[in-house]
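Per reviewer request, we include the raw input and output of the structure prediction for the construct analysed in the revised manuscript.
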Amino acid sequence: MEWRKFIKGKNKQRSDLIPGFHAVKEALTQRQALLGQIWVDEGKHSPRVQELISMAEGKAIPVNFKKSSDLDHLLSNITHQGIIAFAKAFQYIDLEQLIHDSLQIPGHALLIAADHITDEGNLGALIRTAVFFGAHGLIIPKDRSAQVTEQVRKRSSGAYLQLPITRVVNLGRALDTLNKKGFWIIGAAGEGTGTVYQCDWKRDVVLVLGREDKGLTDLVRKYCHQIVRIPGAGTINSLNVSVAGGVILSEIVRQRLHCHVNI
């Protein structure tokens, strides 16, 4: 089949697959995506499909109409909505470069460390949340953690293109490096001694978020200067990591805005 030739042919450069309308549309608006071509289910004729086709044609990106089975062969376990883009392989940023870039405005650096979040949907949603609230980057472990996969790209609706992401061999060592660079390491956990609203976020910060089922690992806890909690009033004692991240990031933005304007 043609799709096999595209992936396994003479071109040795690996391509990332971006599935779904929102993710592909976002990629079409981002110069760094460098799309090679787009596949569209030949049975799809909705206005939003036509919009994407027009956007692609405006950027001289080839659009190929394929059988539904061809798209399913590429992404059999992901709801691709009948559209898949082929993009230049995603590049993780170096940790030192991420630190350097985030410290351009002293006291305002905001990084997120994902402590072995394995669910791709959660990681994708967290990436989109991080971009919405203006985080400067994300740190993930190389092992026992979700990576930037097709599912993550789809779940983030293309927001992964706007967030520098670094992978590290040892998350604890990375946090130690950040500590030495002057970052305040703050973990989020239900047993935190203070709330997110009592914490001072007006400094260079690394927010560490753990898995919903296991929370922060013991190794990571050792490097946290402070562990905070989100106070709740209901009977559920935990939140999805992207929701928890959104609550905390909202408070960070509120405090930092309050430094400059009266709100």
